[in-house]
Every structure is written in C-alpha cells, then in structure tokens.
Amino acid sequence: MLDWAVTFLIVALVAAVLGFGGIAGTAIGIAKIIFFVAVVLFLVSAVVGLMRGRGRSVP
Questions:
Q1: Rounded CA separation 22/15 (Å)
Q2: How many structural domains comprise the chain?
Q3: Which domain holds residue 25?
Q4: 8, 22, 32, 41: least surrounded by Cβ within 10 Å?
C-alpha cells in the first residue's frame, strides 16, 4: 500500500514541475490518504499481533 502512496507522490511532484497544479494537488491528497490508511492498518496489525503473542507465550 505504501507503494501506491509513493507512486502518487511522484506523480504529484512531476505534475507540479510541469505546472499542473490541480493534478498535483489531487495526487498529493490521494497519497496522504493512502499513507494514513497504511499507517492505521499497520498499527492495527501490530496490536493484534501483540495480543496473539501474549496468549501463546504463557506456560
């Protein structure tokens, strides 16, 4: 998912250099959304992994 965020960031940078402000703004907005969704999914996955790991390590 972070690959998509980086892709949209690169698209935004190229569009900004070429003078396409609207496309650059839209692409950077999409990149931000995808990045934050990836961070939230990572945190949820980490918490679930910690919860599962504690149950198995008890003798």
A1: 9
A2: 1
A3: 2-57
A4: 22
